[in-house]
Amino acid sequence: MKSRANRFVVPALLLAATIVVALNAWFAFRAVGSLLDSEYWLEHTWRVINQVEIIMSSAKDAETGNRGFLITGDEAYLQPYYDAQKSLPRELAEFQRLAADNPSQQTRITEMRAVLEQRLALLEQGIDLRRHNTNDVRAMVLSGTGKVEMDHLRRIADAMEAEERRLLAQRTAHARVDSKRTRYTIGLASALDFLLIVLVFRFLANERRMRVASELDAERLAVARAETEERAEEVRALNATLEQRVELRTAELQTINRELEAFSYSVSHDLRAPLRTIDGFSLALEEDYAEAVDAVGRDYIHRVRTGVQRMGQLIDALLQLSRITRAEIAREAFNFSELAESVAGVLREENKNRDITFLIEPGLQVEGDPKLLRIALENLLGNAVKFSSKKTNAVVEFGWDKEKSAWFVRDNGAGFDMQYADRLFSAFNRLHGDKDFKGSGIGLATVARVIHRHHGEIWAEGVVDHGATFWFTLG
Q1: Whole-structure pTM over 0.70, yes or no?
Q2: Measured distance CA(414)–CA(387) in Å, rounded
Q3: 367-397 confidence digits (pLDDT tens)
């Protein structure tokens, strides 16, 4: 009777265990899904805030370019204005897409678009007047309409950001609740699973003891089988523990990456706000009160603006370095020589007053991510041009070395001392002073990240005042 009863107990126990484990998995899946959804909305909110900053930056560029032209009459000052004309419609459309779920933000973006269109139209009138009649333009500038409209734009932007900050606070609180609920759910599920394992193990151990007692003639064989089962159980338990640790570590790394991305957006916003304030007031001092201070004062103002702009460039470089670390690699085959020629063409335009010879080996093919490799070449070729600026006949080379099976960028510039070569690819480590060669100290670190993302290596060789060669491979 007892044996017959046990025949039904085992399947019933296994069925109950299966149901409990399935329910635990389902609850854990629900909790993790809710947490991922909360984290998505947090990231989405930061993107909307960042888009507001992009729109205001373009509007400021339009104002700055227009003002420079009105004061000087030089058409070159209008380039930022034309760039803003092209980019603002895309930026407004992107904000409208990102905030499609928020009716109040849709109302604000409509109002912002109307104000921007009105302001751009007035700026265009000012440009036409400046081209034909300077006195009318001066009266238009002194009327103060630009300040009123820009203040209106700032109020709209502040309202947009305040709305997103409110949503950010709500979503952050919701994410915390989801995080706690996920931990509690997974913890409870793990505890229940462990309890079931213990109960099953005890039941099986009892069955084994009963079997050994009833089958004395097979004692040694039963013991051997039991030992084998115990070893197998230990191996399975170790494997399960290892898989859990890997999954936990993967989840932690994903969470850290998302937190780093949110932190990057936050730092970018929090640093840019005071920089824009400093830049705006110093620009006003430079343009409106230049005659009220002496040459020393004007020099101080110029230094403040230069420092602010350099800080902005450093923030951009750090954000680019962060994005490269997280970016997915999209490999494809393409002409590496053509990409290098494209970068060299931009550098020629930026350095028209210099005698620079670019020697780029033609017809070189490569497999990799074109966008990331362009960033690498922009930094390497840009550094070669910069550090050869004191040479009357600068020469910059790009090509493939068959003996080393590596790509190279070479110049005949300032070079470096090889004892410091191991510091070249670390962020903020510079071997030359800022007075000699301007820079952020991020460029080569960015290049190293790109090469490492392609499973390659990078190294450098140089001699002081006799140039440098940067070598790299791509996996």
Answers
A1: no
A2: 6
A3: 999 988 998 999 999 999 998 988 889 999 9
